[in-house]
Specification:
about 425 residues; alpha/beta; six-stranded mixed sheet; five-stranded mixed sheet; 19 helices; 13 strands
């Protein structure tokens, strides 16, 4: 079919994005025509995190190659919990909570795929639509009869839980595979969906769906898994000292998001450029070669931070992240907007509320209490050499006993923010009530 890019799988393979595939090589031929594929996202929080970016961007790659993506938000499976490679049973959330999360995730996945591009326009579905009200006897007869418990307990994701002493697995989570398999069968029936993609931890669930679709509809469908993102040093991807890196700007600011990618280790950055950007593989190879020849810090981290921040937060979010980064690096913070300062107060800088009444509190005490120095001596020394700056202006020794004058409203940024810099690198953001 015209418009289909038959080199897609080759590109995914060059990027290291193919972990396993069903069909013994048939998938390449299958994708020479426009197909419908899906990926599922369970609502385990009110936002996806960056671990979901690989499958989200892979849906986008398939659509760009001429295929139709379906993003499935698991309003039903989210009520159960996926046991795949989880050390222990999940806590069950209420239907009301999960329903609210489903709506937020629908909006989030919609950022990455196009809903108005003709025949391969994207679709968002909720698996609660075909499971809500399903009679338990019908489910057991129509779906359960096609699954062998022997095969299910031999799936690696389930086997680990069964063999882990003192944990085990509930029947609720054990049944998750049936629900996800039913999703694939249902999407095949409704949309002629013939491919499911997901992380490598989903292999057992995906192959269950392939088998169920064949048994229920005699349909030939395929599964493709993507690698779970790992870091070269063995630490968990997507986690920082401040917590998870979320896609929602209200949970992780565009500035903190940008900084996360900017701080990628040299050992990971070129792999991440292949996983998380739409730069060509040859172009990424050229960036790596140029960095190897260049003395000093590689440029790849800056390219990665810009590309991924633009994808998730748009040009406006990228511009704000770069503006804040430049302001903090140069010390020229006067032009930061109120929204920039809100980002910093969310997660960009250590942040404290100023007391409503300073009383006998000195500026030195205030900065020590905020964790800017272990004792008053470094602060006093910094004050003596004009190395304490509040909103870009140096504070002298004569002001160290009067924080009320240093933090007066007329000297604030955005009406309530004070950025304190101690020396060259230590920053703290103080705020007054909005």
């Amino acid at each position: 079919m015209a418009g289909v890019d038959a080199t897609l799988l080759k590109d995914l393979d060059r990027r290291g994005l193919i972990n396993q595939a069903t069909g013994d090589g048939e998938l390449t031929q299958h994708l020479t025509e426009s197909r419908t594929l899906y990926c599922g996202f369970d609502p385990t929080a009110d936002s996806l995190h960056i671990g979901s970016l690989v499958p989200l961007l892979t849906l986008k790659r398939f659509q760009a190659a001429g295929h139709q993506p379906i993003a499935l938000v698991g309003g039903a499976t989210g009520l159960i919990g996926d046991p795949s490679f989880k050390a222990q049973e999940r806590s069950l959330n209420t239907p009301e909570v999960v329903s609210g999360w489903v709506e937020k995730l629908k909006r989030q996945v919609s950022q990455f795929i196009d809903f108005d591009c003709g025949e391969n326009s994207a679709i968002v579905v909720n698996n609660l639509d075909w499971t809500q009200g399903l009679d338990v006897l019908d489910f057991l007869r129509d779906v359960g009869k096609h699954f062998s418990v022997n095969n299910m307990i031999n799936k690696e994701s389930v086997k680990q839980r069964i063999q882990r002493e003192g944990e085990g697995i509930s029947f609720t989570e054990f049944s998750y595979m049936l629900l996800q398999s039913m999703d694939f069968s249902e999407l095949y029936k409704r949309y002629n969906c013939t491919l499911q993609i997901g992380g490598s931890d989903q292999w057992g669930n995906i192959t269950g769906g392939v088998d169920l679709t064949r048994r229920q509809h005699r349909g030939k469908v395929y599964g493709l898994t993507l690698p779970l993102v790992t870091k070269a040093d063995g630490t968990k991807f997507g986690k920082t000292e401040s917590g998870t890196i979320w896609l929602d700007a209200k949970r992780t600011s565009p500035y903190a998001f940008y900084q996360f990618w900017l701080n990628t280790a040299d050992a990971d950055v070129y792999k991440f450029l292949r996983y998380f950007t739409f730069l060509g593989v040859d172009e990424i190879d050229e960036i790596e070669a140029a960095d190897r020849e260049r003395a000093g810090r590689p440029e790849a981290q800056g390219i990665l931070a810009r590309e991924v921040t633009r994808l998730v937060h748009g040009e406006e979010g990228l511009a704000a992240a770069e503006r804040i980064s430049h302001a903090l690096f140069s010390g020229d913070i006067a032009d930061l907007s109120a929204s920039d300062l809100e980002q910093l107060s969310l997660d960009g800088l250590p942040c404290s509320a100023l007391p409503t009444d300073f009383g006998e509190l000195t500026l030195i005490n205030l900065l020590v209490d905020a964790g800017m120095a272990p004792s008053g001596k470094p602060v006093k020394d910094a004050l003596g050499r004009n190395a304490v700056l509040v909103n870009g202006h140096p504070v002298g020794m004569d002001s160290n006993g009067s924080p009320a004058s240093v933090f007066s409203a007329d000297k604030s940024l955005g009406g309530r923010f004070f950025i304190v810099r101690l020396g060259k690198k230590k920053y703290h953001l103080f705020t007054t009530a909005a």
